[in-house]
Structures are given as structure tokens and as C-alpha cells.
Write a structure and sequence with these properties.
Number of strands: 4
Distance between the termini: 17 Å
Radius of gyration: 23 Å
Structural class: alpha+beta
Helix content: 40-55%
Strand content: 5-15%
Bound molecules: heme C
Order of helices and strands: HHHHHHHHHEHEEHHE
Largest sheet: 4 strands, antiparallel
Shape: globular
Strand order of the largest sheet: 1-4-3-2
Length: 322
């Protein structure tokens, strides 16, 4: 796509050089076209990110059951006539990277829905989302029409992404799906009744990049709750590497390797506040009833006594080679 854009740009420069003496206005129109194309590409990228990372919870469709306020409500709280784009974007990025009560400017939403779970996004992706939110009035009829149109277009795989980024997108889509299901279930049934909702196998992955790429996604752990999620030796090595790096205050990036003609990515899963009701300290954070339900379903459960920021396990994403 970028290549095509560059070619178009080059073409318009060449063309404008040629005809500069005859028609000034035509070349201006062409330059505007190129700019429009670039804008559309950026907008579609932002919409795709919103679709996979945010709209599971911040569903724009009215009337659907909701686990979080719609995005236009959030924009209303963050946006006013005086705020600069830089300030707006910085505020949104700050909250997403660190969703705490102190960083929230919507105490009512935190009370109604519970705090947004912490997820990990690429900095440039959140930047793109925040820019888009500033530039677009996502409450307008015009925007809804655009979104409805975009929603209908089949999931496509951007050709310029690395395997690591493709895997990350799929992991984020899965995470936000699990997050939504869990938040909804905990809200409606309490933690004890929500025990069966922390499960990737319950998530439909039709119309997603995962289908287009013929991807398999699983979660594994060195301290599994369900024994079928037990990590193998290579996966455990990654988990231990992550722990060691964290103890040294270092970052530990995802890992992608080629295995039997497939590309396989490992992505860490961290514990946040939302998880402690079922993976925290028994009787203190996990209540008696929840504990009993867990024990009944998983007599060999090892997945307790975690703290915020611990590694709980990893996503393993298996992709066909492009
Ligand atoms: C798993 C569900 C979930 C996902 C996925 C999610 N959010 Fe949220 N978000 C929430 C909930 C719940 C709230 C309301 C409570 C709060 O403010 O923390 C919220 C609130 C917010 C707020 C307002 C914060 C405040 O209180 O001032 C912003 C901004 C936000 N989300 C942005 C995003 C963006 C952008 C994405 C996608 C990258 C996203 N969220 C994905 C659940 C989610
Ligand atoms: C309502 C209870 C509940 C909450 C909240 C919860 N989990 Fe779980 N979790 C479970 C149960 C039950 C399983 C076993 C699911 C299965 O059979 O695959 C599980 C399994 C997992 C697994 C798969 C590996 C394994 O041990 O079987 C991971 C990874 C995981 N949870 C991470 C998290 C994270 C991260 C959070 C917070 C964002 C979280 N969970 C919140 C109940 C919960």
C-alpha cells in the first residue's frame, strides 16, 4: 500500500512538472487526491484497531448490552474547545497505559462498570487511535454511517505487518474478547458464578484476522488451572526468561520462531486487578464460594497466589507462513 502511495505521489509530481505551464489548478486537485487517499488509509487503520481492540467493550451500537461506556461518551469527557490535540492525545494514552482510579476522569464509569482492565498495546497503535478520536466526532450520524460501512468489509490482513505484529493483533483481539466476557459475567453473576468464563475456547473467532491467516491461538501456563493448558519446556523457558528480566528491571519482548514451517509467537499474559478475584490469594482475594467452584471444576488447580504485574502464562499464536 505504502509503495502504491509513493508511486502515486511520484506520478503526481512528474505530471505536475510536465503540465505546470498549462494547468495549475488540475495539479492541485491531484495532490489533494493523494492526500485524501493517505487520510483514508490512516482512518481505516484506526478503525481496524478500534474494532479489534476497543469495540468489544466500548460497543458503538446502541441498545446492546454493554460492559463499558461507548467511545463517544469518553470523547465528550476528554474533549473540549480549549484542549489542544497534543493534550487530548496524551491524556488518552496515559489512561490506556495505566488505567487506575487516579488517572480516570470518569468516576461514574468506574463505579458502574469497574476499572478498565490493563492491556498491552503498541505505542504507535494507541497514538493512532487517540489521534483518530480527536479528529473524528464519533457521535455524529455521518460517523456511524462510515463505521457501519467499515464493519461490513471483510477482515483483511495488512500486508506490511511483521509476524510479531500480526500475532500481537490477534492476541489483543482475543484478550479484549476474554476481558469483555469476564467483565460481563463477573458483573452479572459475581466471581463465583463467572468461573467458567475465563476460557479462550468459548470465544467465536469468525470474521477475524485469525481466520484469514488460519491461526491457532492458545494460552498456556507453568502453573495451570486446567491441565490441558500446561506449558511445554520451550514455553516454560520463555516464561522463566520473562520473570528473570522483570526481576532485573528489564523488558522482555515477545518471541517469534519458525517451527515446522509455521511461525509461532509467544506473548506474555500479565495479571491485573481484574484477575485477582480468581487467581489471587485464597480467602483474601478469592472468596470462599469462588474457591469452592474452582476446586470442584479443577481439583489440581495451581493458578493461585498471583500478584498484579506477575506473568500468568503466555499466548501461543501459530500462523501459516504468508
Ligand atoms: C475489556 C473491556 C475493555 C476494552 C477491551 C477496552 N476498554 Fe476502555 N474502558 C473499559 C471500562 C469498563 C471503562 C470504564 C471504567 C473506567 O473508566 O476505567 C473504560 C474506560 C475507558 C476510558 C475512560 C477512562 C476514564 O475513566 O477517564 C478510555 C479513554 C478508554 N476506556 C479507552 C479505551 C480504548 C482506546 C480501548 C482500545 C484500545 C479500550 N478502552 C478498550 C473497558 C474496556
Ligand atoms: C471469574 C474467575 C476468573 C477470573 C476473573 C480470571 N480467571 Fe483466568 N481462569 C479462570 C478459570 C476457571 C480458568 C480455567 C479455564 C479453562 O478451563 O481453560 C482460567 C484460566 C486462565 C488461563 C489459562 C491457563 C490455565 O491456567 O488454565 C490464563 C492464562 C488465565 N486464566 C489468565 C487470566 C487473567 C490474565 C485474568 C485477568 C485479566 C484472569 N485469568 C481472570 C478463572 C478466572
Amino acid at each position: 500500500m505504502k509503495n502504491l502511495e509513493n508511486k502515486l505521489l511520484l506520478l503526481s509530481i512528474v505530471v505536475s512538472g510536465f503540465f505546470i505551464s498549462c494547468s495549475q489548478s488540475e495539479t492541485k486537485a491531484e495532490a489533494a487526491d493523494v492526500n485524501d487517499n493517505e487520510q483514508t488509509t490512516t482512518d481505516n487503520k484506526a478503525l481496524a484497531l478500534l474494532k479489534t481492540n476497543c469495540f468489544n467493550c466500548h460497543n458503538p451500537a446502541m441498545g446492546e448490552s454493554r460492559v463499558a461506556p461507548p467511545l463517544f461518551k469518553i470523547r465528550e469527557h476528554y474533549y473540549d474547545e480549549e484542549i489542544t490535540k497534543e493534550e487530548f492525545v496524551a491524556a488518552i494514552i496515559n489512561f490506556i497505559n495505566n488505567p487506575t482510579e487516579e488517572n480516570s476522569i470518569m468516576p461514574g464509569a468506574v463505579r458502574n462498570f469497574g476499572l478498565m482492565p490493563k492491556m498491552s498495546f503498541k505505542e504507535e497503535d494507541i497514538q493512532l487511535i487517540a489521534d483518530y478520536l480527536y479528529d473524528n466526532d464519533v457521535s455524529s450520524d455521518e460517523w456511524y454511517a462510515k463505521w457501519e460501512e467499515f464493519k461490513k468489509s471483510p477482515a483483511s490482513v495488512p500486508t506490511d505487518l511483521s509476524y510479531e505484529d500480526l500475532g500481537r493483533n490477534i492476541v489483543n483481539e482475543t484478550k479484549s474478547n476474554i476481558g469483555k466476557n469476564l467483565m460481563k459475567a463477573v458483573k452479572e453473576r459475581g466471581a463465583a458464578g463467572a468461573v467458567e468464563f475465563c476460557n479462550t475456547r468459548a470465544i467465536p473467532i469468525t470474521d477475524s484476522m485469525a481466520v484469514v491467516l488460519n491461526v491457532k491461538v492458545k494460552r498456556v501456563s507453568d502453573k495451570p488451572r486446567n491441565p490441558i493448558n500446561t506449558a511445554n519446556s520451550e514455553e516454560i523457558a520463555y516464561i522463566e526468561g520473562w520473570r528473570k528480566a522483570k526481576a532485573n528491571g528489564e523488558k522482555y519482548p515477545p518471541k517469534v520462531t519458525e517451527m515446522e514451517n509455521k511461525m509461532v509467537g509467544y506473548y506474555p499474559i500479565e495479571i491485573n486487578q481484574t484477575c485477582l478475584k480468581c487467581h489471587g490469594i485464597p480467602e483474601k482475594q478469592i472468596n470462599t464460594e469462588t474457591l469452592a467452584n474452582i476446586k470442584k471444576l479443577y481439583p489440581n488447580d495451581k493458578a493461585i497466589a498471583y500478584a498484579e504485574g506477575d506473568i500468568r502464562g503466555i499466548f501461543v499464536v501459530e500462523m501459516d507462513k504468508k
